[in-house]
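pinned: reference chain
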Amino acid sequence: MRRPPRPARGRGAGVRVPPHERSVLANGLKLVIVPRRDVPLIACQALMMGGAVADPRTRGGVAALTAGLLDKGAGDLDAPRFADAVEGAGGSLAGAAAAELISFGGQFLARDQALMIELLGLALTTPRLAADELEKLRARYIELIKAAKDTDPGELTGLYGRALLFGSHPYASPVFGSERSLGRIRRADVLRYYREQAGADRLVLIFAGDVDAPRLKRAVLARLGRWRRAGAPLRRLARPRVPQRRRVLLVDAPGAEQSYFWIGGVGVARSYPHRAALDLVNTLYGGSFSSILNTELRVKAGLTYAAGSSFTRGTVPGEFAIRSFARRVHTGEAIERALATLAQLKSGGISAAALEQARAYVLGQYPLALETAADWAAALGELEAYALKRAYIDGYAQQVRRVTLEDARRVVAEAFPPPEHVVIVAIGDAARIRGQLTRFGELRELPLGRGSFR
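pinned: its structure tokens
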């Protein structure tokens, strides 16, 4: 009888939060400095709490547009001059929005520390948010959505899925908005969002790399120490409701040869205490090539080239999602097999051997995500943004090694939704696949060309 692999012991053991300095300025700004002398670079990361959940309900995409405009001119520098100042020094700065925060950051040579602070400060405190740049960025976002509908509709399944799963909850709104919501946004909406959501009390600043820490701290204090607080309180999110019955959304893409599908349920929050066990179980279920989900749909049945699962975790539970695709004739079979694997998992379908394989995989991959200064800036930003303890990183490898089969089964019971409490989105040729989907639950249809995801 073949023995299961022995637990991996050495890998990941040396991954610990590096020495760093943390301080909170009088205006509430949180500053983290991580000296690393291995390369003459400084990674900077600014996290502004708020994000897309603060978008007005009918104007999804305001946070994304605001984030995208931060490097399009600030202070006395218009967009071309700001870009020249960054690129002329060989640096990078860019903004992006997520559900609960806006990030803005990049990388500079260590010798340009002063310039980095100045440009970062200008972008955060005096962005121009110019009308002409707003129009260009809005047009670009709309074109990207249209292009996805035309050439890669699989990219949109999660947007339709979250809208269906979360309903009236803020997590339902797409971070980048929809064609319809983006068309409603005016410069006044962006200015209002910035005034209410941007401020020192919402800001986490992380610098990692070849820094002169005392000099950097003085520069941050001089540039941002008197910045105002945000004009509105930070939105606190309620816990999303769990679907009580299975529902299906069919998004009609006439003539499509393939169907893309998304199966989602409410998962767990970033603060979920059993992170290591969650990572192991998701790895063995749908997080690796040899996972249960990929083996069933690709290797055994030959229905797809890829199938996977993931958790999105915020301050409150986000979604657990399964994603895949299949030829339209096999759409129903692929969805049925995916639901069957979830049912199998919920009924105790984890073996000791599979758990050990997942453990070896996770311990091998974990250190690779924390190698550079930019990696550490992002990791420490996550700790600050979600009020996580240092043990979230320092103790992770040890926690992975200690996960038992009983721990894994508890996580399956707590975090993975049962198949009857999920929603399903399929994008495909409705005339050809409608009959295959009616057995999964109450069916609703939308045209792919619709201007929103609801």
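why pinned: Residues 26 and 116 are 22 Å apart (CA to CA). The chain has two domains: 21-224, 247-447.
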